[in-house]
Design a protein that fits this description.
It comes from Zophobas morio. This protein is mainly alpha-helical and about 675 residues long. Helix content is about 65%, strand content about 5%. The N and C termini lie far apart (about 105 Å).
């Protein structure tokens, strides 16, 4: 305290002695520093420098509050007479100590850290912050760091497998993080780690891209976790490495699961494989890749590629058809379906994969036809399950997508009530009927069916019931017209003329022929392709036989079945079998036709709104508006535009060749 007062009095006294005081202190410091310089070189330079600097720094702090300029003078003189004199040697020694620490030797951090801190503390007051530190130490330190790890990483990569390399890289980077905190100024932290990561990680990008496929193929989750721990340190590397995962998953899915690139697969196996594969890789994204958005997106993109894959023989993917048949497999009554199977699990699998479909219109076409079969033939396991399925589709694609499916369910409910009312009507009018007689009335606009075959003259016993229903229906719904669809009918007959009682399930056409034998054993059959095919199935089943007289058939009263019970089903006629084989092709043809109609309607809606539009903009808007159901090919859109021009709904603009105008 007394020293401070003496300095204060000297500074404010008159006349002023500040200049004399400054000069004396300066001379003292110079003399003192010469003595320090001689003492430093006598011992270990690094440790002596550190010890003398600590004492000198404390002295400078004591003078700081008394006279700031003396403090600056102290630092300046140390920088000129000590630091500049030993700077090159100090930097070499510091770098050598840090390298020794990297090599696993024990290094006392205090002298190294203290010397480096002096580089920061001695920065000239009018220069940029940390300029002296950056020029004198940081620049050579970063260069040495780059050389050290470049050599070490290259040597280790050549001698060891990549898994060992990654473990070593992660360890060395973590060690360097601790080393930077222990020795150098924190302003260098990110720069040093960036250089270290560049040598250990960035320069090995090609190896990361190759090895991620190998680890995925082997299912080495631990190695994948280490791999991600490294590449996440260099964010620009995450995207290219995740792209390699996308390529691998696409290839694996196409080889093992895609119907377009492998042998035929069953719908259940196809869905189970893809769903399991997707679930496994999403779980991998959670555990190994920390739910990184790039890797999750890679899984999604890969499965979109797999599910929408086509081959040279098909312009459309097979996946929509397989998904539709998968739904049919668990929604249809079958001995293969457990009584208490979890429908929610099945729906979840289907909807999850359905969302990847680009060709949702193809799925809808197949699904609606299979739904129609289940509802008409009463083979649906549960109407509640059917409703739940349609609700799931509605949530994904909207009301328009499922409107016809909902109408089909409504028609079935209405038909059940109608059948009950008709049976009551027959009882009230004391007319004959069949046991379990059921009629389904279908709305033409909603059901994917057509009157493909002629309606033959039914047997008299059946004709009475059909005429009665027409009369009953017209009384309930005047103005409506019924069209019978016999090819969709299913019949059961009892064969009462044999010693053993048999029940046969058959088609309407087979029943029409068999009922002719109710009152006589021999019947003359007219010629006709449909009758010939149907008759052939009955003769092949040995229920009927040729009598020897042309066009005459007799009832086989010696019919018996060596195997099976008393209830059996007749095979479909040749014509019906051919229709089943061609159903897939016919469905695809119908989809293409529907797409052309949909595209033309979309083009007309856009043109009515725009009146005039450029070619590219029209293509873009049409593709955008139809993307929810399918992704149209540009060639198909152009073909529809040309068709509308030929029909004079559109015209090319006279002033611009790449524009179209709406013709009102």
């Amino acid at each position: 305290m007394e020293m401070c007062e003496d300095v204060y009095r000297a500074c404010v006294s008159c006349p002023s002695h500040s200049a004399e005081l400054y000069s004396c202190v300066q001379q003292y410091l110079i003399t003192h520093l010469y003595d320090i310089s001689e003492e430093i070189v006598k011992g270990n330079l690094l440790k002596s420098y550190y010890q003398k600097w600590k004492v000198y720094q404390r002295g400078a702090y004591c003078l700081d509050h008394a006279f700031y300029y003396f403090n600056m003078l102290c630092l300046e003189k140390w920088r000129i007479h000590i630091f500049d004199l030993y700077k090159a040697q100090l930097v070499c020694l510091i770098l050598a100590e840090i390298e020794s620490d990297r090599n696993g030797n024990f290094v006392d951090p205090s002298p190294v850290k203290g010397a480096i801190d002096s580089f920061v503390y001695l920065n000239p007051p009018l220069s940029a912050p940390l300029l002296l530190y950056q020029q004198a130490f940081e620049a050579p330190f970063l260069e040495v760091t780059s050389q050290y790890y470049s050599k070490e990483a290259a040597l280790f990569a050549s001698e060891r497998d990549f898994t060992a390399y990654m473990i070593k890289a992660l360890k060395r980077i973590e060690e360097e993080e601790a080393r930077v905190r222990k020795f150098v100024d924190l302003s260098s932290y990110s720069k040093v780690l960036e250089e270290c990561e560049r040598q250990w990680i960035t320069n090995q990008l090609a190896s990361f891209e190759v090895e991620i496929k190998n680890y995925l193929r082997k299912g080495d989750d631990e190695a994948l976790s280490v791999l991600y721990s490294l590449i996440k340190r260099v964010p620009p590397l995450v995207e290219p490495v995740s792209s390699r995962m996308l390529n691998y998953l696409s290839e694996e899915g196409l080889v093992r699961g895609s119907p377009g690139h492998s042998d035929p697969v069953t719908p259940v196996d196809y869905v189970d494989f893809l769903f399991s594969m997707r679930s496994n890789y999403l779980a991998l994204c959670r555990t190994a890749f920390e739910n990184n958005a790039y890797f999750i997106a890679a899984v999604d993109k890969a499965f979109r590629v797999v599910i929408n894959a086509t081959n040279g023989e098909r312009h459309l993917s097979k996946s929509p058809e397989l998904l539709a048949f998968y739904c049919d497999a668990f929604l249809k009554k079958s001995s293969r379906n457990p009584v208490n199977y979890d429908i929610d699990e099945k729906l979840n699998k289907m909807v999850t994969l359905f969302e990847y479909l680009d060709e949702k219109d193809v799925f809808l076409k197949f699904y609606s036809r299979l739904l129609a079969k289940r509802l008409i033939n009463s083979t649906s396991s549960s109407l509640e399950a059917e409703t739940q399925m349609i609700s799931s589709l509605k949530q994904t694609c909207g009301n328009d997508y499922t409107a016809k499916l909902e109408s089909m369910l409504t028609d079935i409910g209405t038909s059940e009530k109608l059948s009950v009312a008709f049976r009551k009507y027959l009882c009230d009018h004391r007319e004959n009927t069949f046991d379990n007689f059921r009629i389904v009335v279908l709305g033409r606009a909603s059901w994917p069916i057509a009157a493909q075959q002629p309606f033959p003259q039914p047997p008299s016993v059946l004709k009475q019931v059909l005429l009665a229903f027409e009369k009953f229906y017209v009384s309930q719904h005047s103005g409506r017209k019924l069209q019978w669809l016999p090819y969709l009918s299913k019949c059961e007959l009892r064969m009462n003329y044999l010693p053993r009682r048999y029940e046969v399930q058959c088609s309407f056409y087979q029943m029409s022929i068999l009922l002719l034998f109710n009152y006589k054993d021999t019947v003359s059959i007219e010629e006709g392709a449909l009758l010939d095919n149907t008759l052939a199935t009955l003769i092949n089943a040995k229920i009927l036989a040729w009598s020897g007289t042309p066009a005459q058939v007799v009832l086989n009263k010696r019919f018996s079945r060596a195997r099976g019970g008393g209830k059996f089903k007749l095979p479909a006629s040749i014509g019906e079998t051919e229709n089943q084989k061609d159903a897939s092709k016919a469905t695809i043809d119908a989809v293409i036709t529907d797409r052309q109609i949909s595209l033309q309607a979309t083009i007309m809606r856009i043109m009515k709104t725009r009146r005039k539009i450029a070619h590219r903009q029209l293509l873009s808007e049409v593709a955008s508006q139809t993307s929810l159901r399918f992704k149209p090919a540009i060639a198909m859109i152009k073909k529809c535009i040309e068709s509308l021009i030929d029909q004079q709904y559109l015209a090319r603009a006279a002033d611009f060749t790449d524009c179209y105008e709406y013709i009102s």
